[in-house]
Amino acid sequence: MSLEPIDPETALELYLADKENDLAEASLKAHKYRLNHFLRWCEQEKIENLNTLTGRQLHQYRLWRRDEGDLAPVTEKTQMDTLRVFIRWLESVDGVEQDLSEKVLSPSITPEQNTRHETLETKRAEKVLAHLEKYEYGTIEHVTIALMWHTMMRIGGVHALDVDDYHPDEQYLEVRHRPDQGTPIKNKGDGERLVALSDQICDLLDDWIADKRPDVTDDDGRDPLLTTVQGRASKSTLRFYVYKWTQPCRYDGECPHDRDPMNCEARPRNHTSKCPDSLNPHAIRRGSITHSLNNDMPDKVVSDRANVSPEVIEQHYDRRSEREKMEQRRDYLDDL
Q1: Which residues pair with 235 in a beta bridge?
Q2: Where are the domains of the chain?
Q3: Which of 66, 197, 199, 270 has a CA that sits 20 to 30 A from residue 258's CA?
Q4: How far apart are alpha carbons 190 and 188 in whole angstroms?
Q5: What is the rounded CA–CA span in Å between residue 207 and residue 137?
Q6: How far apart are CA 318 and CA 117, in angstroms?
Q7: Interatomic CA distance for residues 209 and 215, integer angstroms
Q8: Full-model pTM
């Protein structure tokens, strides 16, 4: 096989262009971020033509990245797995030796290592929502947190909602993938679904739309469900709401770390994630899924509603203990 010379920068540019239709926008950005480290290493090692790349060099890169980035095993695996995909693509365009991707080594990790435990527990969620219900009723912050907890949606799904996606009479939301209009969702078309809503959530959405939602459109002329005066609330703004309202001082009035809430470094908008107890949006999704499972919602219903496979629920989302699962199964014994 005759290889065609290709430099690292051109290779990455062509790879990302090729994957543009296959990967969601967030995934494409993640690949670019991870592979930029590889480009830095190539520059450091003066590798200008990837035709010469060897398995030994790939191993040297792995060790360099591990030490340079002080990576946890899970992060190292993610980065090396992405590199393997990139090298496999290079094989397909005669940029590297065939089967070089098989020499990209990646650490083996246990299911426990691959599971994130950050979760908004039910009792804590109830406190947050009770505070918002009483003191922030019908605000965008209240609607955002309540909607995420009730629907188990990812932040991208909530961000993508329009007013027309809400059907108050039938009490459901449509989740739609519209990448050409700036609102892609994870799993693309496979992530599209209808999500049923409770009376309480519909009342909240009705009040939000009627009384407090800024009547603005986005750059594509759509009417976003979650808006600020500037237009569709950005995903970073929605994340801020989650970080803010999972700080204990916000809903409990007290800091478990004996900090002065008014002078705390985590108080300003751009630093809310610095609070030791603030949670990211995925923690709400994880907590909501576990809450639903604990309340005997069938696994298949949770899977369809949350748009996640039962296997992924088992590994990444289900925070029930083995004893809790046993006791739930016990309830069905009388029916046998």
Answers
A1: none
A2: 8-103, 122-284
A3: 270
A4: 5
A5: 9
A6: 10
A7: 9
A8: 0.66
Q: What is the largest CA-CA distance in the chain?
A: 70
Among 307, 98, 87, 78, smallest CA distance to 186 is for 307
Reference 198, options 163, 129, 150; nearest CA is 150
Rounded Cα distance, 290 and 320, in Å: 7
Residues 175-188: pLDDT tens digits? Answer: 999 999 999 998 88
**189's tokens:** 């078309």
The CA distance from 26 to 312, in Å, is: 19
- What are the tens digits of pLDDT across the range 91-150? 999 999 999 999 998 877 665 544 445 789 999 999 999 999 999 999 999 999 999 999
Dihedral angle over CA of 69, 72, 75, 76, nearest 10: 70
φ, ψ for residue 196, nearest 5 deg: -70, 150
Please give the helix or strand (H or E) that residue 86 lies within, else none.
helix 73-92
Q: Which amino acid is at 261?
A: P
**What dihedral angle (degrees, nearest 10) is formed by the CA atoms of 42, 47, 51, 57?**
-60
Residue type, 242: V
Q: Which two tokens stand for residue 320?
A: 């029930």
Tokens of 63: 């060790």
Cα–chain center distance at 199: 27
CA 74 to CA 288: how far, in whole Å?
A: 24
8-103: CATH, from 1.10.760.10, 3.30.70.1450, 1.10.150.130, 3.20.20.80: 1.10.150.130
Looking at the domain that runs over 122-284, which CATH code has it been given?
1.10.443.10
Q: Tokens at residue 250, please?
A: 């916000």
Closest alpha carbon to 111 in 322, 315, 317: 315
